[in-house]
Amino acid sequence: MALQVLGCTSRPIRVSLHRRCSVIATSDIKRKNLRFVAKPRFSFSLQYSSRNYRLASINCSTVNGAAVESSEYYEGEGDSVSLIERIRQCIGFLRTILPGGSWWRFTDEVDSRFIAKPVTVWRALSRMWELVAEDRWVIFAAFSTLIVAALSEITIPHFLTASIFSAQSGDISVFRRNVKLLVVLCVTSGICSGIRGCFFGIANMILVKRMRETLYSTLLLQDISFFDSQTVGDLTSRLGSDCQQVSRVIGNDLNMILRNVLQGTGALIYLLILSWPLGLCTLVICCTLAAVMFVYGMYQKKTAKLIQEITASANEVAQETYSLMRTVRVYGTEQQELKRYNYWLQKMADISFRQSAAYGIWNWSFNTLYHATQIIAVLIGGMSILAGQITAEQLTKFLLYSEWLIYATWWVGDNLSSLMQSVGASEKVFQMMDLKPSVQFISKGTRLHRLTGHIEFVNVSFSYPSREEVAVLQNVSISVRPGEVVAIVSIYL
């Protein structure tokens, strides 16, 4: 081995040669840091062994034609710089993951041309009502039983507390009356809840059935050029997963939202009657929870729309691969197709991860505010009992109804975010349902029983709408006389 060194001073150092021809140099006298400007790669034709070679340390400007600089390394200075840099990186990372940071934003997850136009919640509910309007009696029966069940449930804590304290005071007649009312309320609530669930399930089935029927019939009446720009995987995804996502709107989301709004309103009125200071404190906490709920719901709507778009893109890749499997096998592109599919799966996983993180923040907010309500109620209520303003029975009722109000607010927020998710997932479906049929299906023409005459096409140019830059026919003139059969045959070169 020969190593050419120009103008160098010699100091004994030890160099270890490894299998991949990397050089690790440590000085016996003073630690040096060698910085290669041209990043040379040394190659030695030696047999691999564990022998060590002693060479001279390098203070010169070139080694085998590669520029080298020698710089001192101070361990303390490097540690302080790295510590400051780590602190800066931690601060920057915290800024990105905090609510409102760049980590929560969706900028280039899906190409903007694939995103459907936004649809408001009210607009989406109006379209859904148009689909189920023929069976409106099912909806009316479901909401009627929902109202009766909600009112029955909201009065149960009052009579439950009254029964406990009447038994404690020894008033048997009041205790029996309260127990009888509790039994009636529980039976009424159970029967109405069962009927409500049955009717809402039927309404869900009707909604999904008619939505798929309407979407399928609309797509069938589109022009051929529409199918040139849309893939089979995308269309089947709209008919499948997107429509199924909407199935929760009536039976789950609207059902729980209306039920908890009624119960929460009743609980708030009862709290204000019992003690308006405690009621106002609970109302402030519920308003804070509602604000967090609104922001979370809008975020969930956006994530749901992106997830549905990415799901459609992944289905498109799978559809293309399976339909052209022979071609894929001939050219051996299985790994390329797998990478294409994993690309969309990774995007979906990233969005789902952020969606789960947002749900965790929402639950953290709820639990914090819920326990804060309990603490405030105990503090203010205990002081009121000591002052003789309220009784222990009233404080017990207040705790029960404040818990009911907080949970009602949480259920409203959770189901409202689910409703926004469904609306976001259905935006593309509603956009396709609004498409106008092809002209050939809506134009009114006259059918000729007998066609005679001389037809002549002069300077005809034609191109498909999906590929307007490619001319199929350009300045073509054709003359067709009676009794002739004319065919246009093209050769693609």
Overall description:
The chain folds into three domains: 1-73, no CATH class; 103-437, ABC transporter type 1, transmembrane domain (ABC transporter transmembrane region fold, Up-down Bundle), CATH 1.20.1560.10; 454-493, no CATH class. It has helices at 75-97, 121-132, 136-169, 172-220, 224-229, 232-246, 248-274, 276-323, 325-331, 334-387, 392-433, 439-442; strands spanning 12-17, 23-27, 32-36, 52-56, 62-63, 66-72, 455-462, 473-480. By secondary structure, it is mainly α. A hairpin with a 2-residue loop joins strand 5 and strand 6.
What is the topological layout?
Elements (H helix, E strand, L loop, with lengths): L11 E6 L5 E5 L4 E5 L15 E5 L5 E2 L2 E7 L2 H23 L23 H12 L3 H34 L2 H49 L3 H6 L2 H15 L1 H27 L1 H48 L1 H7 L2 H54 L4 H42 L5 H4 L12 E8 L10 E8 L13
Antiparallel strand pairs: 1-2, 1-4, 3-6, 5-6, 7-8
Describe this structure in a few short sentences:
This protein is mainly α and 493 residues long. The chain folds into three domains: 1-73, no CATH class; 103-437, ABC transporter transmembrane region fold (Up-down Bundle), CATH 1.20.1560.10; 454-493, no CATH class. It is 65% helix and 9% strand.
